[in-house]
UniProtKB/TrEMBL annotation:
Family the UniProt entry places it in: Belongs to the BchN/ChlN family.
Keyword Zinc tagged: no
Reactions accelerated catalytically: chlorophyllide a + oxidized 2[4Fe-4S]-[ferredoxin] + 2 ADP + 2 phosphate = protochlorophyllide a + reduced 2[4Fe-4S]-[ferredoxin] + 2 ATP + 2 H2O
Required cofactor names: [4Fe-4S] cluster
GO biological process, one term: light-independent bacteriochlorophyll biosynthetic process
Protein name, entry field: Light-independent protochlorophyllide reductase subunit N
Lineage: Bacteria, Pseudomonadati, Pseudomonadota, Alphaproteobacteria, Rhodobacterales
EC number in record: 1.3.7.7
Amino acid sequence: MNQPTHIAGATCRDAPVLKERGQREVFCGLTGIIWLHRKMQDAFFLVVGSRTCAHLLQSAAGVMIFAEPRFGTAVLEEGDLAGMADAHEELDREVDRLLSRRPDIKQLFLVGSCPSEVIKLDLHRAAERLTVKHAPHVRVLNYSGSGIETTFTQGEDACLASMVPVLPKTDARELLLVGALPDVVEDQAVDLLTKMGIGPIRVLPAHRSAEMPAVGPNTVYACLQPFLGDTAAALDRRGACMIQAPFPFGEEGTTLWLRAIADEFGVDDETFARVTDAPRARARTAIANAAKALQGKSIFFMPDSQLEIPLARFLTRECGMEAVEIGQPYIHKGLVGPDMDLIPAGPTISEGQDVDKQLDRVRAARPDLTVCGLGLANPLEAEGLTTKWAIELVFTPVHFYEQAGDLAGLFSRPVRRRELLKLEAAE
């Protein structure tokens, strides 16, 4: 049956999960390089893959051919794929050439792809070998960006998780913020916490390898993104302790995220209010203005970005929307459980995807807005449904108070556009 039995419960954490395993429509995990290479100023991401991988990155990043970004592709040719050439020798040669030309590189990531995983190229062993060869000037790490079994945001998770085992050790009590955000948004978060007297504050990933945080049994960390399950597990293995809270989307989510950290560090109510009251008021006003078109509208989340559950919490509680289905590629309740606690029971909660069955449910429900991947948006629009690209929510600054109105606007704009088109057609 293509619908779970709804068991009465107070929140979505109590609801049964419709687990689907079938054809999926997801973007490639290599996409995470597009924001990570801007974040880490002395890192380089070398994708070991095909020409298709190279074209994807060039197109997604909008990089001109004469630009010199901090990513590239070591192309696997036919001889490599057929086992006629020693791919490790060729990889060593490419890395030597790259590092001789780019002495600014301090951290090199060998990024696995679908082709390199199909031929079982051992990039972990290659990274260890190349680290010995190029130490201490360059550290070489590896992770998989393959989209065979993952969704696109998990590229960042895999990257950060690969860094955790080599972070230095510390016994100091420090706050670690985990996840890549635009610099201006990260600065806002650090500024709010600093004004409360919280510190030292470290960030993973740091802008430069020399600034990478240390981790130990007194480290407490808060995730900035809900797709960092592997990174959180790696930090737990290092002895760090996670602060659980809803994610900082909208006024409510941001306040609860900050409150959880403030409680951990003993910040009193008066100090918390002094720091947050003004930005909270601005956020509420901005959301109210942007969300007028969303009141009473229905929304359907197809699984794509791993942001679906926290965004559904924001849209239902702060923008007056009704969630029909909240689909997420993987549901990690250790991360998104606090958000699920705030969503009233009612919407279908689905994990994984069988795209044809899910499209049938979208067509039956005909929601006012469907959040989905690029490949499904145009066909659904052609059927008269209003859509929102999930990937845009990752590339756009949407966290914390000052971006709360912009976040609501990302959802209200397609709804207003559809209403305007209807008015024009009626005339």
